[in-house]
Every structure is written in C-alpha cells, then in structure tokens.
Amino acid sequence: MIMACDIGLKRIGLAMGVQGVVLPLEPILRTSRKQASTELQALLESKKPSCLVVGLPPEHYADTRKRVLHFVGLLNFAPLVFVNEGNTSLDALEHTHHLKAQKRQNARKDGKLDSLAACEILKRYQEMLV
C-alpha cells in the first residue's frame, strides 16, 4: 500500500493506493503544524504504507515548496517520494463538476477536494513507475 498527501496551510489531503486502485482518505484539518504532523505520523504508523508520495509545488512557488519540505521534515517516516503537484487541485476540481455549487464549496472547505488532489498526486507517481 502506498499513501500520498497534498499538504496545504489549512488542510492535508490524503489518498492511498492498493494494487493500482487509488482511493481518497479523510483529510487532516490543520489547526497547527504540530497537530497536523502528529495526526499524519499516527496515520502512517497505523497504515504502514511502503512509501509516502508527497506533492511538491513547482520551483516558482518557493515559499510554499519550503513549507512542504519543512512539514515532511517533522515526520519520522521513509521512504518519501516527491512528485510535482502542479495543477492537481484543478484536476481534482474537475471531478466535482457533477455536484451543485454549494456541495463543491463544501468539498473545498472540508478537505475532500484536497484528498482528491492527493489521488491525482498518487496517480502521477503510478504513471512514473510504468
């Protein structure tokens, strides 16, 4: 099993892949960096994935990229694999077009959209393996 995450300032989207099937997990809603890293660490310890795929922003988003790298540095987990997360949130948003506007807005706020972005990150990683 492989896990992926889309790390943001307010939410961490999560996904897992088992035998090529990618599924979203419940996101982590951040109240602090410590709380979020502790929750993610606990999840990694309980699920025991073979690796964690982390969405990394493109280089021109230097501040965000630095924050993501700092956050994963708080984790006691290896191996970490970094994948370009460019446009994964837009790709995830396409999967919500069937929803009414209010439900789409709720998906953004409750982190479900972030977990769909984590699914896209995991799919990119799987494509790299082929």
List key phrases describing it:
alpha/beta; Putative Holliday junction resolvase YggF; YqgF/RNaseH-like_dom; Nucleotidyltransferase, domain 5; five-stranded mixed β-sheet; 5 strands; 130 residues; YqgF; 5 helices; YqgF/RNaseH-like_dom_sf
Question: How would you characterize this protein structure?
Answer:
- This is Putative Holliday junction resolvase YggF.
- It comes from Helicobacter heilmannii.
- It holds the Pfam family RuvX.
- One of its GO terms (biological process) is rRNA 5'-end processing.
- A five-stranded mixed beta sheet has the order 3-2-1-4-5, with helices on both faces.
- The chain starts with a strand and ends with a helix.
- Helix 2 links the parallel strand 4 and strand 5.
- The protein is built from five helices and five strands.
- The protein is of the alpha/beta class and 130 residues long.
Structure in a nutshell:
This protein is of the alpha/beta class and 130 residues long. The chain has five helices and five strands, in the order βββαβαβααα.
- In total, the number of strands is 5
Low-pLDDT windows of residues? none
Query: Per the principal axes of the C-alpha atoms, what is the gross shape?
Result: globular
CATH superfamily: YqgF/RNase H-like domain
Give the averaged pLDDT, no decimals: 87
What is the CATH architecture descriptor?
Answer: 2-Layer Sandwich
The number of distinct helices, counting runs of at least 4 residues, comes to: 5
Major beta-sheet overview = 5 strands, mixed
Please name the CATH topology. Answer: Nucleotidyltransferase, domain 5
Q: Secondary-structure element order, as H and E?
A: EEEHEHEHHH
* Estimated helix fraction: 40-55%
The main sheet orders its strands as 3-2-1-4-5
CATH level 1 class label: Alpha Beta
Protein name: Putative Holliday junction resolvase YggF
InterPro entries: RNaseH-like_sf (IPR012337), YqgF (IPR005227), YqgF/RNaseH-like_dom (IPR006641), YqgF/RNaseH-like_dom_sf (IPR037027)
Organism: Helicobacter heilmannii
